[in-house]
Structure formats: C-alpha cells, structure tokens
Please model this.
Amino acid sequence: MIDHKCACCRSVMIQACNNSTCEMFKEPQAFELPEPEREGLPDTRNGITYKKEFQVQIRDKKNHDCYLTIGFYPDGRIGEFFITVGHIGGGLRAALDCWAIACSILIQCGKLDQVIEKFEFQRFVPHGFTDDPDYKSVFSIVDWISKKLRTIRNNGGQYGTTETGDI
Model:
C-alpha cells in the first residue's frame, strides 16, 4: 500500500483508484538530455602559471605554495586549469585535482560563469593571506582560483603582465 493521494479521485491509496486514465497509472515519459557541446582545446596552446603563497598554519607548516596553470583557446578564452599545492595531504590534493578536471570540462562546455559563481567565496583550509597583489586575503584555494578566473575573464582574456609590464 502506498500512502499517496490520487490526483483524479483523491483516493488515499493507489489501489483504490479504478480510473485507467488516472495520473498514477500512466507510464513515466522517457526523455533524453541533449549532449552538451564541448569545445576541445588544441594540442598546443597558450597558458600561464601563477605561483602564490598562502600564509596559514597547518601541521607546523606556515606557508603553502599553490601553482595555478591556466590553458587558453587561441582567441584568449579560458579553456582549462590545473592546480598543484605543496604541503597538503594526498586526499586534499586528489580532491583539488578532480575538482579542476570537472571544472575544466564545464568550462569547455561554456559554463565558465557558473563555475565562478558557484565556487567563489567557498571557505575551507588552507585560507588566509596570500602574496597575490590582487587578492591579499582569500577564503580558500578554490576561492582564489575562482577570483583569478573572474579577473581574467573580465579582462577579455588578458591574463597578466610580466615583470616589465608587457603581456
């Protein structure tokens, strides 16, 4: 016995309804989700690697180096990113790697804005002060990456300057 009200006769039990056109007797409609359009990156592409230091105390280690590598489409759009963080456990390292791969696939399907919106301001360890001149304090590595992706996107794919000021 299912404790559910029938839509057509208001019966409490599904077996009490004798109407063959009742909503409860209809087969669920099968539908197919459209396959997202994924735009792959070329085998050879431009990229940039940022090295930032998170100044937090975890396991007697005060500073954590984080390397963010961003790959670009030929027109300058962000296409993928990878993360390497020093002095963290294997579990967090693997989780960040899987997160970067999943986000890169979403970015290649045109979902960069959604990735940025969902992960900006996420708070977890390591967090705190950085040596990034744009973001002196962040809530997490994921927060810093999301903010960096937003800055690059807002700059039209211009992803930074060298020490001499040239791109």
